[in-house]
Specification:
The chain is mostly helical and about 110 residues long. The protein has five helices and two strands; from the N terminus they run H-E-H-E-H-H-H.
């Protein structure tokens, strides 16, 4: 988190899942010291708010007609598809825009 804050200017909003590892003293101390850091809690289960769901949808579409004979064939295909999605800013922006995130987080 500190590394992220070094590279970003202005207010930083972190979408927070409320998991136990994220409730520790290190995080609460950091949030108390860094006024521009804001934790935005997510509900316990809210796939419609998660842009990752769009990434997985794109990946499943790209892999739908494949027939790997095992995990050793599936993993390289999956990595390739995820890498191509990652390199396409339009895909990434589309996943964010199609989520139900509040507009200020898009």
């Amino acid at each position: 988190m500190r590394e992220l804050l070094r590279h970003l200017r202005g207010h930083v909003f972190v979408l927070w899942d409320g998991g136990r590892p994220h409730k520790g003293r290190l995080i609460t101390d950091l949030v108390g010291r860094v006024r521009r850091l804001h934790l935005v809690p997510f509900p316990g289960y809210a796939p419609e708010l998660n842009p990752d769901e769009g990434i997985w949808k794109l990946a499943k579409q790209a892999l739908a007609n494949g027939c790997p004979s095992g995990i050793s064939e599936l993993l390289p295909s999956l990595r390739g598809v995820l890498d191509s999605i990652r390199k396409n800013p339009n895909n990434l922006r589309g996943c964010i825009n199609h989520s139900s995130l509040p507009p200020f987080l898009r």
